[in-house]
Amino acid sequence: xxxxxxxxxxxxxxxxxxxxxxxxxxxxxxxxxxxxxxxxxxxxxxxxxxxxxxxxxxxxxxxxxxxxxxxxxxxxxxxxxxxxxxxxxxxxxxxxxxxxxxxxxxxxxxxxx
Length: 113
Description:
- By secondary structure, the protein is of the alpha/beta class.
- It has a single domain (2-100), classed as GMP Synthetase, Chain A, domain 3 (2-Layer Sandwich).
- 30% of the residues lie in helices and 18% in strands.
- It is built from 3 helices and 4 strands, in the order βαββαβα.
- It has helices at residues 10-24, 67-78, 104-110; strands at residues 2-3, 42-47, 52-57, 86-91.
- The protein has a 4-stranded mixed β-sheet, with helices on one face.
C-alpha cells in the first residue's frame, strides 16, 4: 500500500489497509468464483488526503469483458470503508498476471498446484 498523505499514522494505515482488503475480498470474479484479493489481482492501494483511494489492479486476461462488473463491485465494496470518501480503480497490465500471484486458498479452490 502506498500512502500519499502525512495525515495517516502507521497504525491507521495498517488498520485502513486491513479494512480495504476485507472489503475487496467481497468482490468475486464472476468467471472464476474467487475474490479478487485471493486471485492476486490487486497490485497497489494508494491513499491520499481527504479519504481518496486509488486501487491499481489487473485482470486474469487482457480484454476480459467483465471489468465493468468488477469495477462496479469494487466501488460498492469500498462504500463499507468509512475512511474512504472516493475510490478510483486503475487497470494495469504490468506486471502481467499469472497463477503464481494467487493465494494458496485460490489455487486449491481452482485445483491448481
